[in-house]
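Hey, resending since the last one bounced:
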Amino acid sequence: MHDHRRLGRELGLFDTDPLMGAGLPYWLPDGAVVRHTLEEYVREAERAAGYRHVYSPVLGKRELYELSGHWDHYRDDMYPPMELGGEQMLLRPSLCPHHALIFRSRARSHRELPLRMAELGGMYRSERSGVLGGLTRVRAIQLNDAHIFCTPDQAVEEAAGALALISRAYADLGIRASRHRLSLPGGGGKYVADPALWRRATALLREVLDASGVAYEAVEGEAAFYGPKIDVQITDPAGRESTLSTVQIDFHQPERFGLRHIGPDGARHRPVMVHRSVIGSVERAVAHLLEEHGGAFPPWLAPVQLVVLPVGAGQEERAHAVVREAVALGLRAEVSGPDEGSLGARIRRARLVPYQAVLGAREAADGLLAVRLRDGRRPGVLPVAEFLRRVGQRVRARGTALWDAA
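The C-alpha coordinates again:
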Protein backbone atom coordinates (compact mmCIF):
# COMPACT_ATOMS: atom_id res chain seq x y z
CA MET A 1 0.00 0.00 0.00
CA HIS A 2 1.40 3.39 -1.02
CA ASP A 3 1.14 6.50 1.17
CA HIS A 4 1.51 9.67 -0.90
CA ARG A 5 2.89 11.60 2.08
CA ARG A 6 5.80 9.20 2.54
CA LEU A 7 6.39 8.85 -1.21
CA GLY A 8 6.23 12.59 -1.78
CA ARG A 9 9.02 13.18 0.72
CA GLU A 10 11.13 10.20 -0.38
CA LEU A 11 10.96 11.27 -4.02
CA GLY A 12 11.55 14.95 -3.25
CA LEU A 13 8.21 16.14 -4.60
CA PHE A 14 6.77 18.21 -1.76
CA ASP A 15 7.15 18.91 1.94
CA THR A 16 5.83 21.15 4.71
CA ASP A 17 7.30 23.48 7.30
CA PRO A 18 5.64 24.52 10.56
CA LEU A 19 6.61 28.15 9.90
CA MET A 20 4.53 28.08 6.69
CA GLY A 21 1.68 26.43 8.56
CA ALA A 22 -0.35 23.24 8.56
CA GLY A 23 -2.12 22.39 5.34
CA LEU A 24 0.24 24.57 3.28
CA PRO A 25 2.69 22.24 1.49
CA TYR A 26 5.42 23.56 -0.78
CA TRP A 27 6.51 21.94 -4.04
CA LEU A 28 10.12 20.88 -4.61
CA PRO A 29 11.63 20.95 -8.14
CA ASP A 30 10.55 17.44 -9.20
CA GLY A 31 7.11 17.97 -7.70
CA ALA A 32 6.85 21.30 -9.50
CA VAL A 33 7.60 19.48 -12.79
CA VAL A 34 4.74 17.04 -12.16
CA ARG A 35 2.38 19.85 -11.20
CA HIS A 36 3.33 22.04 -14.16
CA THR A 37 2.99 19.13 -16.62
CA LEU A 38 -0.40 18.21 -15.21
CA GLU A 39 -1.61 21.81 -15.38
CA GLU A 40 -0.43 22.22 -18.97
CA TYR A 41 -2.11 18.94 -19.93
CA VAL A 42 -5.41 20.22 -18.56
CA ARG A 43 -5.06 23.59 -20.25
CA GLU A 44 -4.30 21.92 -23.58
CA ALA A 45 -7.27 19.57 -23.24
CA GLU A 46 -9.52 22.48 -22.37
CA ARG A 47 -8.31 24.60 -25.28
CA ALA A 48 -9.01 21.70 -27.64
CA ALA A 49 -12.52 21.46 -26.18
CA GLY A 50 -13.25 25.13 -26.84
CA TYR A 51 -12.49 26.68 -23.46
CA ARG A 52 -10.96 30.13 -23.05
CA HIS A 53 -8.72 30.77 -20.05
CA VAL A 54 -8.87 33.67 -17.64
CA TYR A 55 -7.13 34.80 -14.46
CA SER A 56 -9.04 36.28 -11.54
CA PRO A 57 -7.96 37.58 -8.10
CA VAL A 58 -7.84 35.34 -5.05
CA LEU A 59 -9.49 38.11 -2.97
CA GLY A 60 -12.97 39.54 -3.13
CA LYS A 61 -15.17 41.85 -1.12
CA ARG A 62 -17.48 40.32 1.44
CA GLU A 63 -20.38 41.67 -0.62
CA LEU A 64 -19.35 39.43 -3.53
CA TYR A 65 -19.75 36.30 -1.42
CA GLU A 66 -22.94 37.61 0.13
CA LEU A 67 -24.30 37.94 -3.39
CA SER A 68 -23.16 34.48 -4.46
CA GLY A 69 -24.54 32.88 -1.29
CA HIS A 70 -21.19 31.65 0.00
CA TRP A 71 -21.26 33.94 3.03
CA ASP A 72 -24.66 32.67 4.17
CA HIS A 73 -24.15 28.99 3.38
CA TYR A 74 -20.40 28.39 3.45
CA ARG A 75 -18.80 30.87 5.84
CA ASP A 76 -17.68 28.22 8.33
CA ASP A 77 -15.23 26.98 5.69
CA MET A 78 -13.99 30.47 4.78
CA TYR A 79 -11.18 32.51 6.29
CA PRO A 80 -12.29 35.51 8.37
CA PRO A 81 -12.54 38.89 6.69
CA MET A 82 -9.57 41.25 6.49
CA GLU A 83 -10.13 44.96 7.04
CA LEU A 84 -8.60 46.91 4.15
CA GLY A 85 -9.37 50.58 3.60
CA GLY A 86 -12.68 50.37 5.40
CA GLU A 87 -13.79 47.32 3.43
CA GLN A 88 -13.93 43.67 4.37
CA MET A 89 -11.95 41.45 2.01
CA LEU A 90 -12.01 37.65 1.91
CA LEU A 91 -9.81 34.93 0.46
CA ARG A 92 -12.07 33.24 -2.04
CA PRO A 93 -13.47 29.79 -1.26
CA SER A 94 -14.30 29.17 -4.93
CA LEU A 95 -13.86 30.72 -8.37
CA CYS A 96 -17.44 30.79 -9.61
CA PRO A 97 -18.39 34.25 -8.26
CA HIS A 98 -15.41 35.80 -10.06
CA HIS A 99 -16.31 34.07 -13.32
CA ALA A 100 -19.91 35.27 -13.02
CA LEU A 101 -18.59 38.84 -12.75
CA ILE A 102 -16.39 38.33 -15.82
CA PHE A 103 -19.40 37.08 -17.78
CA ARG A 104 -21.52 40.08 -16.84
CA SER A 105 -18.71 42.59 -17.47
CA ARG A 106 -20.23 43.35 -20.87
CA ALA A 107 -23.32 42.58 -22.93
CA ARG A 108 -23.42 39.00 -24.21
CA SER A 109 -25.09 37.64 -27.33
CA HIS A 110 -26.59 34.17 -27.77
CA ARG A 111 -23.99 33.72 -30.53
CA GLU A 112 -21.28 33.58 -27.82
CA LEU A 113 -22.97 30.68 -26.06
CA PRO A 114 -21.91 28.25 -24.89
CA LEU A 115 -19.12 30.38 -23.41
CA ARG A 116 -16.60 28.05 -21.76
CA MET A 117 -14.45 29.92 -19.23
CA ALA A 118 -11.61 28.05 -17.50
CA GLU A 119 -9.01 28.87 -14.89
CA LEU A 120 -6.38 27.04 -12.87
CA GLY A 121 -6.66 29.26 -9.85
CA GLY A 122 -6.04 29.43 -6.15
CA MET A 123 -8.79 29.18 -3.57
CA TYR A 124 -8.70 28.87 0.20
CA ARG A 125 -10.58 26.74 2.70
CA SER A 126 -10.35 27.15 6.49
CA GLU A 127 -9.95 23.44 7.16
CA ARG A 128 -9.70 22.25 10.76
CA SER A 129 -6.23 21.10 11.83
CA GLY A 130 -7.47 17.62 12.64
CA VAL A 131 -8.53 16.84 9.06
CA LEU A 132 -5.41 18.12 7.29
CA GLY A 133 -3.17 15.54 5.66
CA GLY A 134 -0.48 15.62 2.98
CA LEU A 135 -1.92 16.88 -0.29
CA THR A 136 -5.43 15.48 0.13
CA ARG A 137 -6.73 18.06 2.61
CA VAL A 138 -5.00 21.44 2.37
CA ARG A 139 -5.88 25.04 3.09
CA ALA A 140 -4.54 26.58 -0.13
CA ILE A 141 -5.91 24.78 -3.19
CA GLN A 142 -4.97 25.08 -6.85
CA LEU A 143 -8.24 24.21 -8.56
CA ASN A 144 -8.77 23.15 -12.15
CA ASP A 145 -12.07 24.97 -12.52
CA ALA A 146 -14.34 26.03 -15.36
CA HIS A 147 -17.78 27.51 -15.86
CA ILE A 148 -19.82 27.13 -18.99
CA PHE A 149 -22.45 29.80 -19.59
CA CYS A 150 -25.09 28.37 -21.88
CA THR A 151 -28.80 28.24 -22.66
CA PRO A 152 -30.96 25.70 -20.81
CA ASP A 153 -31.22 23.70 -24.04
CA GLN A 154 -27.41 23.44 -24.20
CA ALA A 155 -26.85 22.44 -20.57
CA VAL A 156 -27.14 18.65 -20.96
CA GLU A 157 -24.79 18.52 -23.94
CA GLU A 158 -22.23 20.74 -22.17
CA ALA A 159 -22.37 18.72 -18.96
CA ALA A 160 -22.01 15.48 -20.95
CA GLY A 161 -19.00 16.96 -22.76
CA ALA A 162 -17.41 17.78 -19.41
CA LEU A 163 -18.00 14.22 -18.20
CA ALA A 164 -16.34 12.88 -21.36
CA LEU A 165 -13.35 15.20 -20.81
CA ILE A 166 -12.97 13.76 -17.30
CA SER A 167 -13.07 10.21 -18.65
CA ARG A 168 -10.33 10.92 -21.22
CA ALA A 169 -8.13 12.55 -18.59
CA TYR A 170 -8.44 9.56 -16.28
CA ALA A 171 -7.38 7.24 -19.11
CA ASP A 172 -4.31 9.37 -19.85
CA LEU A 173 -3.42 9.54 -16.16
CA GLY A 174 -3.88 5.83 -15.58
CA ILE A 175 -6.50 6.27 -12.85
CA ARG A 176 -10.10 5.15 -12.66
CA ALA A 177 -13.29 6.29 -11.03
CA SER A 178 -14.56 4.00 -8.28
CA ARG A 179 -18.11 5.26 -8.80
CA HIS A 180 -20.22 8.18 -9.99
CA ARG A 181 -22.47 9.88 -7.47
CA LEU A 182 -25.44 12.14 -8.06
CA SER A 183 -25.17 14.41 -5.04
CA LEU A 184 -28.47 15.82 -3.84
CA PRO A 185 -29.42 18.19 -1.01
CA GLY A 186 -30.19 16.98 2.49
CA GLY A 187 -31.95 18.57 5.41
CA GLY A 188 -31.05 21.68 7.36
CA GLY A 189 -30.32 25.21 6.22
CA LYS A 190 -27.16 24.40 4.28
CA TYR A 191 -28.82 24.70 0.86
CA VAL A 192 -30.50 27.55 -0.99
CA ALA A 193 -34.26 27.32 -0.80
CA ASP A 194 -35.68 27.03 -4.30
CA PRO A 195 -37.23 23.58 -4.81
CA ALA A 196 -38.18 24.24 -8.43
CA LEU A 197 -34.60 25.03 -9.46
CA TRP A 198 -33.29 21.98 -7.57
CA ARG A 199 -35.77 19.70 -9.35
CA ARG A 200 -34.90 21.18 -12.73
CA ALA A 201 -31.13 20.87 -12.27
CA THR A 202 -31.43 17.34 -10.87
CA ALA A 203 -33.51 16.20 -13.83
CA LEU A 204 -30.89 17.53 -16.25
CA LEU A 205 -28.03 15.80 -14.43
CA ARG A 206 -29.95 12.51 -14.42
CA GLU A 207 -30.33 12.92 -18.17
CA VAL A 208 -26.57 13.42 -18.51
CA LEU A 209 -25.77 10.34 -16.43
CA ASP A 210 -28.34 8.14 -18.15
CA ALA A 211 -27.08 9.14 -21.59
CA SER A 212 -23.45 8.52 -20.58
CA GLY A 213 -24.20 4.94 -19.61
CA VAL A 214 -22.25 5.05 -16.34
CA ALA A 215 -23.71 3.47 -13.23
CA TYR A 216 -24.41 5.98 -10.49
CA GLU A 217 -25.95 6.33 -7.04
CA ALA A 218 -28.05 9.22 -5.79
CA VAL A 219 -26.90 10.36 -2.34
CA GLU A 220 -28.60 13.01 -0.23
CA GLY A 221 -26.64 15.60 1.72
CA GLU A 222 -23.67 15.84 -0.68
CA ALA A 223 -24.82 18.61 -3.03
CA ALA A 224 -23.22 22.04 -3.31
CA PHE A 225 -25.23 24.65 -1.45
CA TYR A 226 -26.49 26.10 -4.72
CA GLY A 227 -27.29 22.96 -6.71
CA PRO A 228 -26.91 19.21 -7.32
CA LYS A 229 -23.75 17.77 -8.84
CA ILE A 230 -22.18 14.72 -10.37
CA ASP A 231 -19.22 13.66 -8.24
CA VAL A 232 -16.60 11.38 -9.77
CA GLN A 233 -15.34 9.37 -6.82
CA ILE A 234 -11.89 7.82 -6.38
CA THR A 235 -10.69 5.35 -3.75
CA ASP A 236 -7.20 5.27 -2.25
CA PRO A 237 -5.30 2.04 -1.43
CA ALA A 238 -6.66 2.12 2.14
CA GLY A 239 -10.22 2.10 0.79
CA ARG A 240 -10.95 5.74 1.62
CA GLU A 241 -13.21 7.43 -0.90
CA SER A 242 -13.05 11.06 -1.98
CA THR A 243 -14.27 13.30 -4.78
CA LEU A 244 -11.78 14.24 -7.49
CA SER A 245 -13.89 15.65 -10.33
CA THR A 246 -17.31 17.28 -10.49
CA VAL A 247 -19.97 18.46 -12.93
CA GLN A 248 -22.76 20.74 -11.73
CA ILE A 249 -25.72 22.48 -13.32
CA ASP A 250 -26.53 25.75 -11.56
CA PHE A 251 -29.60 27.96 -11.99
CA HIS A 252 -29.04 29.76 -8.69
CA GLN A 253 -25.96 31.92 -9.27
CA PRO A 254 -27.03 33.22 -12.70
CA GLU A 255 -30.15 34.48 -10.94
CA ARG A 256 -28.27 35.96 -7.98
CA PHE A 257 -25.83 37.80 -10.27
CA GLY A 258 -28.51 38.89 -12.71
CA LEU A 259 -26.73 37.28 -15.66
CA ARG A 260 -28.31 37.85 -19.05
CA HIS A 261 -27.62 37.35 -22.73
CA ILE A 262 -29.44 38.70 -25.76
CA GLY A 263 -31.35 35.93 -27.51
CA PRO A 264 -32.14 35.58 -31.24
CA ASP A 265 -35.48 37.27 -30.48
CA GLY A 266 -33.69 40.39 -29.22
CA ALA A 267 -34.90 39.83 -25.66
CA ARG A 268 -32.76 39.30 -22.57
CA HIS A 269 -32.50 35.72 -21.34
CA ARG A 270 -30.88 34.13 -18.30
CA PRO A 271 -28.07 31.62 -18.98
CA VAL A 272 -27.33 28.46 -17.03
CA MET A 273 -23.94 27.89 -15.38
CA VAL A 274 -22.35 24.46 -15.75
CA HIS A 275 -19.56 24.14 -13.20
CA ARG A 276 -16.98 21.45 -13.93
CA SER A 277 -13.55 20.35 -12.80
CA VAL A 278 -11.63 17.75 -14.80
CA ILE A 279 -8.96 16.85 -12.22
CA GLY A 280 -10.29 18.76 -9.23
CA SER A 281 -7.53 20.20 -7.09
CA VAL A 282 -4.00 19.70 -8.37
CA GLU A 283 -2.97 18.70 -4.86
CA ARG A 284 -5.49 15.88 -4.53
CA ALA A 285 -4.84 14.72 -8.10
CA VAL A 286 -1.08 14.39 -7.47
CA ALA A 287 -1.72 12.60 -4.16
CA HIS A 288 -3.94 10.06 -5.91
CA LEU A 289 -1.48 9.60 -8.78
CA LEU A 290 1.32 8.90 -6.30
CA GLU A 291 -0.74 6.29 -4.49
CA GLU A 292 -2.14 4.74 -7.66
CA HIS A 293 1.25 4.39 -9.38
CA GLY A 294 3.57 4.15 -6.39
CA GLY A 295 5.63 7.03 -7.77
CA ALA A 296 6.00 5.39 -11.21
CA PHE A 297 4.17 8.14 -13.07
CA PRO A 298 3.01 7.67 -16.67
CA PRO A 299 5.96 8.50 -18.99
CA TRP A 300 4.60 11.89 -20.05
CA LEU A 301 4.15 12.97 -16.42
CA ALA A 302 7.34 11.59 -14.84
CA PRO A 303 9.70 14.24 -13.39
CA VAL A 304 12.62 12.50 -15.14
CA GLN A 305 11.67 10.58 -18.26
CA LEU A 306 15.08 9.27 -19.31
CA VAL A 307 18.28 8.52 -17.45
CA VAL A 308 21.46 7.82 -19.41
CA LEU A 309 23.91 5.52 -17.61
CA PRO A 310 27.51 5.58 -18.88
CA VAL A 311 29.29 2.39 -17.82
CA GLY A 312 32.61 4.15 -17.24
CA ALA A 313 34.15 7.60 -17.19
CA GLY A 314 35.12 7.24 -20.86
CA GLN A 315 31.47 7.36 -21.91
CA GLU A 316 30.36 10.34 -19.80
CA GLU A 317 30.96 12.95 -22.48
CA ARG A 318 28.86 10.98 -24.95
CA ALA A 319 26.15 10.47 -22.29
CA HIS A 320 25.87 14.22 -21.76
CA ALA A 321 25.60 14.71 -25.54
CA VAL A 322 22.67 12.23 -25.64
CA VAL A 323 20.96 14.09 -22.82
CA ARG A 324 21.38 17.38 -24.69
CA GLU A 325 19.72 15.80 -27.74
CA ALA A 326 16.88 14.51 -25.57
CA VAL A 327 16.34 17.88 -23.90
CA ALA A 328 16.31 19.61 -27.29
CA LEU A 329 13.45 17.27 -28.24
CA GLY A 330 11.48 18.32 -25.16
CA LEU A 331 12.29 15.32 -22.97
CA ARG A 332 13.29 15.48 -19.31
CA ALA A 333 16.61 13.62 -19.17
CA GLU A 334 19.69 13.42 -17.00
CA VAL A 335 22.99 11.53 -16.69
CA SER A 336 23.73 9.16 -13.82
CA GLY A 337 27.50 8.71 -13.98
CA PRO A 338 29.92 6.21 -12.43
CA ASP A 339 30.77 8.64 -9.62
CA GLU A 340 27.26 7.91 -8.28
CA GLY A 341 27.98 4.22 -7.73
CA SER A 342 28.07 0.92 -9.58
CA LEU A 343 25.95 0.45 -12.67
CA GLY A 344 23.63 -1.92 -10.79
CA ALA A 345 23.15 0.59 -7.97
CA ARG A 346 22.40 3.39 -10.41
CA ILE A 347 19.87 1.25 -12.28
CA ARG A 348 18.10 0.43 -9.00
CA ARG A 349 18.11 4.09 -7.97
CA ALA A 350 16.46 5.00 -11.30
CA ARG A 351 13.80 2.27 -10.97
CA LEU A 352 10.92 4.76 -11.24
CA VAL A 353 12.31 6.49 -14.36
CA PRO A 354 10.38 5.18 -17.40
CA TYR A 355 13.43 4.86 -19.69
CA GLN A 356 17.02 3.89 -18.91
CA ALA A 357 19.76 3.90 -21.53
CA VAL A 358 23.04 2.14 -20.75
CA LEU A 359 26.06 3.44 -22.64
CA GLY A 360 29.16 1.26 -22.80
CA ALA A 361 32.30 1.68 -24.90
CA ARG A 362 30.86 -0.23 -27.87
CA GLU A 363 27.55 1.69 -27.81
CA ALA A 364 29.35 5.02 -27.54
CA ALA A 365 31.57 4.19 -30.54
CA ASP A 366 28.63 3.09 -32.69
CA GLY A 367 26.04 5.74 -31.73
CA LEU A 368 23.87 3.19 -29.92
CA LEU A 369 22.13 2.79 -26.57
CA ALA A 370 21.22 -0.38 -24.65
CA VAL A 371 17.62 0.33 -23.68
CA ARG A 372 15.88 -0.78 -20.49
CA LEU A 373 12.27 -0.01 -19.56
CA ARG A 374 11.03 0.60 -16.05
CA ASP A 375 8.90 -2.56 -16.14
CA GLY A 376 11.97 -4.74 -16.75
CA ARG A 377 11.66 -5.15 -20.51
CA ARG A 378 14.75 -4.63 -22.65
CA PRO A 379 13.87 -3.56 -26.20
CA GLY A 380 17.50 -4.05 -27.18
CA VAL A 381 20.26 -1.88 -28.59
CA LEU A 382 18.98 1.02 -30.66
CA PRO A 383 20.48 3.98 -32.51
CA VAL A 384 20.25 7.14 -30.41
CA ALA A 385 18.00 8.98 -32.86
CA GLU A 386 15.62 6.02 -33.16
CA PHE A 387 15.39 5.58 -29.40
CA LEU A 388 14.72 9.26 -28.74
CA ARG A 389 12.13 9.33 -31.53
CA ARG A 390 10.23 6.46 -29.98
CA VAL A 391 10.39 7.86 -26.47
CA GLY A 392 9.20 11.23 -27.76
CA GLN A 393 6.36 9.53 -29.61
CA ARG A 394 5.20 7.80 -26.42
CA VAL A 395 5.43 10.98 -24.36
CA ARG A 396 3.46 12.99 -26.92
CA ALA A 397 0.80 10.28 -27.10
CA ARG A 398 0.38 10.45 -23.33
CA GLY A 399 -1.35 7.49 -21.75
CA THR A 400 0.36 4.88 -19.60
CA ALA A 401 2.05 2.60 -22.18
CA LEU A 402 5.86 2.60 -22.02
CA TRP A 403 6.65 1.33 -25.49
CA ASP A 404 5.09 1.08 -28.92
CA ALA A 405 5.75 -1.49 -31.62
CA ALA A 406 8.17 -0.14 -34.23
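The mean pLDDT is 94.

Sorry for the duplicate.
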